[in-house]
Design brief:
By secondary structure, the protein is of the alpha+beta class. Helices cover 51% and strands 13% of the residues. It has 3 domains: 3-75, no CATH class; 120-181; 189-320, Threonyl-tRNA Synthetase, Chain A, domain 2. The protein has 13 helices and 8 strands. α6 (133-152) packs antiparallel against α7 (162-181). It comes from Brassica carinata.
């Protein structure tokens, strides 16, 4: 039978065929763009022509039923997968991407666990030695003077107390200014956790006194450890250094050496001195801060800085025994 004879149908049957094709195509949600063109191509090539042949056979055998007619559509698995991926909400994609990026950064970053032995212990203990009496005296004196003058000229209430406030406010202000002028501020102290544990058992009384003296306000001294530096460097004497070249204490540190001994490090700034000037006086540092002390001299972390390490020879076991 010639195929063209089978295709010569009345116009009513062709309208019915076109309606069935469009109804079946609208039943499936086809993708847009190039995918839709590809799938429509597969419809016309694989389903339209075989459908006419099947329809003729079904009509002849009496099995054709319009109510149960269904046009098969060929959709590849890759297109279905791609369509499902495109239907994922954008907010969910962003949330999953951020979560995966956060997990990746957390896995790549090294653990931020600080060693317990080298943890810095802040020196936040409140003592009267850490209070500036110059600031207190000057503040009280100026306050009493200001209120006393205001009360004396009837600007502020309490004119009957103005004389007393002026009498005590003036000397307090003078004393506060004098203390502020002669004030020597404390130096910073870096204390590590392992050194703090050994402080009471291994630090000698002289090392404890040195740490307490340099970490509080002092009045009347030109610099910290002035008496010790005067004897060690011999200001103005033969073999000594000029007083204007004297080193200045800038910081102290409490550390523990590799052999477990307690060490108090004195960090000096000396622009006019060299490391050799400290090295040839190493024995004097040992004798002055002794007994049970070994002094070691070394270069600091930056230029013009020098470190004097006062190592305690007192062990914790000997102290407890």
């Amino acid at each position: 039978m010639n195929i063209w004879t089978g295709l010569r149908k009345p116009k009513s049957e062709w309208r019915e065929i076109v309606a069935i094709v469009f109804a079946s195509a609208s039943h499936y949600s086809l993708p847009t763009g190039t995918q839709r063109r590809g799938e429509m191509g597969s419809l016309s090539a694989t389903t339209v022509l075989p459908f006419h042949l099947r329809r003729q056979n079904n009509q002849r055998s009496g099995l054709y039923d319009r109510r149960h007619e269904n046009l098969p559509v060929v959709v590849s698995s890759s297109q279905i997968t791609q369509k499902r991926w495109l239907n994922v909400p954008e907010t969910k994609l962003k949330r999953e991407t951020l979560r995966l990026g956060f997990v990746a950064r957390a896995a790549d970053s090294p653990p931020s666990m600080a060693s317990g032995d080298k943890t810095l212990i802040p020196d936040d203990e409140f003592t009267l030695a850490k209070i500036s009496f110059g600031v207190i005296g000057l503040g009280l004196g100026v306050s009493l003077l200001s209120y006393g003058f205001g009360a004396y000229f009837n600007i502020l209430p309490g004119s009957e107390w103005s004389a007393i406030m002026l009498t005590y406010g003036f000397p307090l202000a003078i004393i506060g200014m004098a203390l502020k002028y002669a004030e020597l501020k404390p130096v910073p102290c870096l204390s590590y956790a392992d050194a703090v544990k050994l402080r009471e058992s291994s630090a000698t009384p002289i090392l404890t006194q040195v740490r307490n003296d340099v970490t509080r306000y002092r009045y009347g001294d030109e610099q910290h450890l002035e008496e010790a530096l005067k004897r060690i460097f011999q200001y103005g004497l033969g073999g000594g250094i000029p007083r204007r070249s004297a080193p200045t204490l800038t910081m102290i540190k409490e550390e523990v050496l590799t052999d477990g001994r307690y060490c108090l490090v004195l960090v000096f700034e000396a622009k006019a001195l060299e490391l050799s000037d400290f090295e040839k006086r190493q024995a004097k540092f040992t004798s002055f801060f002794g007994p049970n002390i070994t002094a070691e001299v070394g270069k600091g972390e930056s230029e013009n800085l020098y470190e004097v390490r006062l190592i305690s020879n007192v062990s914790a076991s000997s102290t407890t025994s």
